[in-house]
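Good morning C.,

I know you're traveling, so I'll keep this short. The sequence:
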Amino acid sequence: MQFNVKTLRAGTGVGVTVLEAADAGDAARLAALQGHVVLQVVPMPWWQRLRTPGSAHFPVLLFSRELLSLLEAGITIVEAIETLAEKEPRAEVRRVLDAIVAGLRDGRSFSSTLEDQSRHFPALYVATVRASERTSSLGEALGRYVAYATQLDVLRGRLVSAAIYPVLLIAVSSLVIVFLMAYVVPRFSHIYEDMGSELPWMSRVLVVWGNALEHYWPVMAGVLVMAAIVLLQGGARALSRVLGRLVWRLPAVGERMRVYQLARLYRTLGMLSRGGIAIVPALDMVTGLLSVTLQARLLAARRMVSEGQALSDALERSGLTTAVANRMLRVGERAGNIGEMMERVAVFHDEEMARWADWATRLIGPVLMLLMGLLIGGIVVLMYLPIFQLAESVQ
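The tokens, ready to paste straight into the viewer:
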């Protein structure tokens, strides 16, 4: 969930930072970890979340790629961002770039100017740039972030592609069911209402449903509008949490969701570690990537690491590893390349998730088709069942 966090920034005064967090307390803690004094934390209003993507979305990955190309060509960072602003056709994106250039010309660091635009640049990105400023390796840091974001987009694309067919199947079947229940069934109810108790029990239920839709459709439409308003004002988040908890309890699906989140955790920690960020601050930065249950485990692991325990031991005791990850992390600690090893663990589990998603799609598609066919066929049979019985009685 997104929160508007009013903070007191050193050297810049009071400002508002947009953070993604599980709750208000988590958002305040993340802002404090960035060195700010938190004044107020409020959820972002729903109308701000509904703004059009073209006006509010900043293409961080594209910006990083183009900036990296210009820096590798020998152009200074101010000139590079000015060049990107000159060629940018979107006014909102151009304003962000102009603000960054103005901050750099005032003598501020690149990371602090990005932090002023926290609505567009995630905390991980700002932390990566800030770490690179200590070693003057901005190009290398941008390259790592580009690789990190690209790999996440590839995995997300695979999962979305796997979900397209089941979602389309459910959507089309739902439209057919709504058409039958809202248009066809009320027509049949007028035909059967004179038959009274001679109708089968399920057919009488359809008749009642048809009469209710015909006489009380304004009330039902109002209920749907009210439900949509509740969802827009935060009910969708609560509903997703409830559904998420139910899904997490499923034996196979819940474990795959845990592995998916752990892969994101390893990849992000690996990127931050290779960027020169210490492991304890890195663990604080990645808390928002996990579900509420895993966040509590990550906080426990962070406490163990801050007390001097090895990262692999802390993650294992907190239930944040797999059999493969545990062995590879121990090898990385002995070899001194824990960041690189975490990224390798993420790649291993990403490929595993892609194979599972492909298998699940092949299985779920036919199962959904069978269930929807039975449901639609059942409605049609119940509508025509009294006619069949009438024909038998005539014979």
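Safe travels,
E.
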